């Protein structure tokens, strides 16, 4: 690896959509589109001739951070005018200033008529000032209080923990740690794409961003948007709870961090799982309460693994939309009336709670930077976004066809719904990426999608094939090729299958199990590990061995039978033949057999068929939500939803796009 700047290639992968924001059209912009710079500076009571930022992130065309001292001393301090809004009155530590565009344009590189505002906040227990620079332009949200609140909230919640001194507790010298960590990542966690750009440019960007942490000798922080919930398609997964797949994934991430700390970089490495479950839950037909429960169970599973390993520190952290928007003092004063009249499209029968829906609305109102760009892109032949759109459509068509409100529709109508959902999911994914970019501006960006690794996002394999090999069928135990953006196999779209005769683990759809049983060559059962996380176990069938599923032809019927058999044995405590002991699990069978009577509920978002705004329970969030937003019980029943779907028509050209 070299530290020379490589030739940067043109590619559609960007960390955000801020590279094509128009400020001179007189249109209305989202909050995200108006943010030009985030920075931190030392807290000081006297004016200095030089102010050096502790950290900065320039966005769009801004060079404010790069030329910070010139901007701050010669422009901001000379010409900025202090102002107030309702939030600076609420929080005295929040200071707001305006600066005329002609004084700012040498640093913003925008039209001189576009003025800017500068917000600064001193948080308790921090010896620094957090700052943000935004343009003064019309908002896409009618109530301007929303923009003012979002800027204040972002300054509070963003991970702008800049550090002006080296960690002196460690007797080491910041050397080439950034290069060593980058090499270790490449060799142990990175997913390799057929068009991989790691050597050409990705490694440089990766190592360069690591310097933010390594030059301060601080633990490296990375984010991984992942672990939303289990798929609603039970021909893909074994159930709705974290299972053996999540165990393997968490162990992979933990082991990577532990190896970094032990052998590469003493300050360590931490990965934040930033759940995107509530971003897409209503699109995939998953109830919002299912997302909350899955997240809770995933945290508990991590704590069990941590306790078993006797780890003293947390290698994994957890974050989600509710932690973003319902935290800090500013989260307590959000007013849902600011987004009155804003509605998000819903095409499935998932149950929606008000707090999750409010989070989605805030995300789209503040961070949607599309402005019709996606519609244009999917009309360009062979455009990467068109290919992504088609891939999402096929992917969603396969899953939503099993939902009660969708499966009764014709194939053509299902395709229409899938296309609408795919389009909405891409828009939300862009907005979510923008939000993550603002909340975690200095963190490394990991992804479970198959990026080409040119940066700033890097694809990883959270379940390595060396541990659990991906397959499409028991007839051919060969890993399929996954070269498209959507497919690095994940636990929430697959299940773990143990082939007992070879003592190997495989990763694939649960339908593989039922198809193997129907071939009359295998016997299968559902088992659990010591964490009570389930997986399927398959073994070769004897020549004269009988199987109760010989007369059962349906995939669903076989999977339901295997699940029912497992639950029956678990209910009576007869689990001797239904407990899986891995070579990695140093625990006796006797300890595992002492299980409680547990009833596994089937996925409610499949069985129920009404889209409902629920009264959310307070334990689903960090704060008492009732003091923040009101409840509602509006119901859209099946008849109304089906009527909407029947009337639905694709935009002009969409039918052709999907061909």
Tell me the radius of gyration.
Answer: 26 Å
Task: Name the average pLDDT.
Answer: 83
Order of the strands making up the biggest sheet: 2-1-6-5-4-3
> Could you tell me the number of beta strands?
19
CATH level 3 topology of the largest domain: Rossmann fold
Output the number of helix runs: 23
How would you describe the shape?
globular
Low-confidence runs (pLDDT<50, min 5 residues)? Answer: 1-19, 586-639
Query: What is the CATH level 1 assignment of the largest domain?
Result: Alpha Beta
Strand coverage percent: 5-15%
- Overall number of structural domains: 3
Largest sheet: 6 strands, antiparallel
The structure class reads alpha/beta
For the termini, the CA-CA separation is 43 Å
Give a description of the structure.
There is one protein chain. 38% of the residues lie in helices and 14% in strands. It has 23 helices and 19 strands. The two termini are 43 Å apart. A hairpin with a 6-residue loop joins strand 5 and strand 6. Helix 9 (277-284) packs antiparallel against helix 17 (411-439), helix 13 crosses helix 17 (411-439) and helix 18 (511-518) crosses helix 19 (555-572). It folds into 3 domains: 21-157, no CATH class; 177-326 and 344-459, Rossmann fold; 494-597, no CATH class. It is globular and about 90 Å long. The longest helix has 29 residues, at 411-439. It is an alpha/beta fold and 659 residues long. It has a 6-stranded antiparallel beta sheet, sandwiched between helices. It has a 5-stranded parallel beta sheet with strand order 9-8-7-11-12. Strands 13-15-14-17-16 form a 5-stranded mixed beta sheet.
């Amino acid at each position: 690896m070299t530290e020379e700047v490589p030739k940067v290639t043109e590619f559609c992968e960007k960390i955000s959509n801020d590279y094509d924001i128009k400020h001179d059209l007189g249109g209305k912009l989202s909050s995200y589109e108006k943010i030009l710079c985030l920075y931190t500076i030392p807290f000081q009571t006297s004016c200095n001739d030089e102010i050096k930022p502790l950290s900065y992130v320039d966005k769009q065309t801004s060079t404010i951070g790069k030329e910070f001292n010139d901007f701050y001393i010669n422009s901001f301090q000379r010409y900025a005018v202090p102002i107030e809004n309702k939030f600076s009155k609420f929080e005295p530590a929040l200071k707001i200033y305006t600066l005329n565009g002609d004084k700012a344009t040498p640093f913003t590189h925008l039209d001189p008529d576009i003025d800017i505002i500068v917000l600064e906040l001193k948080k308790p227990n921090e010896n620094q000032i957090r700052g943000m620079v935004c343009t003064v332009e019309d908002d896409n949200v009618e109530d301007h209080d929303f923009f003012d609140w979002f800027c204040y909230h972002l300054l509070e919640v963003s991970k702008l923990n800049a550090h002006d001194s080296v960690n002196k507790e460690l007797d080491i010298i910041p050397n080439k740690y950034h290069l060593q960590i980058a090499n270790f990542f490449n060799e142990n966690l990175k997913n390799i794409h057929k068009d991989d750009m790691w050597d050409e440019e990705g490694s440089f960007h990766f190592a360069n961003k690591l310097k933010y942490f390594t030059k301060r000798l601080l633990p490296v922080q990375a984010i991984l948007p992942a672990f939303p919930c289990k798929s609603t398609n039970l021909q893909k997964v074994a159930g709705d709870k974290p299972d053996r797949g999540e165990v393997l994934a968490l162990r992979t991430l933990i082991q990577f961090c532990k190896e970094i700390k032990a052998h590469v970089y003493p300050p360590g490495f931490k990965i934040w799982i930033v759940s995107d479950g509530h971003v897409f839950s209503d699109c995939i037909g998953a109830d919002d309460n299912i997302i909350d429960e899955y997240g809770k169970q995933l945290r508990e599973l991590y704590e069990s693994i941590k306790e078993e390993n006797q780890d003293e520190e947390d290698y994994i952290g957890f974050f989600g939309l509710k932690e973003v928007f319902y935290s800090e003092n500013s989260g307590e004063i959000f007013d849902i009336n600011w987004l009155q009249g804003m509605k998000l499209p819903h095409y499935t029968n998932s149950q929606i709670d008000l707090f999750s829906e409010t989070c989605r609305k805030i995300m789209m109102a503040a961070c949607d930077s599309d402005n019709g760009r996606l519609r244009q892109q999917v009309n360009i032949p062979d455009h990467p976004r068109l290919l992504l759109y088609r891939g999402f459509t096929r992917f969603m068509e396969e899953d939503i066809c099993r939902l009660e409100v969708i499966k009764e529709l014709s194939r053509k109508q299902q395709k229409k719904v899938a296309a609408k959902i795919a389009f909405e999911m891409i828009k939300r994914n862009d907005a979510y990426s923008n939000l993550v970019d603002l909340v975690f501006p200095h963190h490394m960006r990991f992804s479970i999608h198959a990026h080409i690794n040119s940066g700033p996002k890097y694809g990883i394999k959270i379940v390595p094939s060396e541990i659990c090999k991906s397959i499409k069928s028991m007839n051919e135990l060969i890993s399929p090729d996954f070269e498209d953006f959507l497919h690095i196999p994940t636990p929430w779209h697959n299940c773990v299958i143990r082939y007992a005769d070879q003592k190997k683990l495989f990763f694939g759809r649960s339908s593989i199990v039922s198809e193997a049983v129907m071939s009359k060559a295998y016997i299968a059962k559902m088992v659990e590990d010591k964490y009570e996380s389930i997986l399927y176990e398959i073994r070769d069938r004897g020549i004269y061995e009988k199987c109760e599923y010989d007369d059962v032809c349906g995939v669903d019927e076989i999977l339901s039978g295997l699940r029912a058999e497992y639950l029956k044995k678990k209910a009576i405590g007869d689990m001797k033949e239904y407990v899986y002991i891995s070579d990695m699990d140093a625990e006796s069978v006797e300890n595992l057999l002492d299980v409680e009577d547990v009833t596994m509920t089937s996925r409610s978002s499949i069985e129920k068929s009404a889209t409902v705004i629920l009264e959310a329970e307070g334990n689903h969030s960090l704060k008492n939500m009732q003091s923040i937003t009101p409840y509602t019980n509006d119901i859209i029943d099946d008849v109304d939803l089906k009527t909407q779907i029947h009337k639905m028509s694709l935009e002009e050209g969409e039918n052709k796009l999907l061909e």
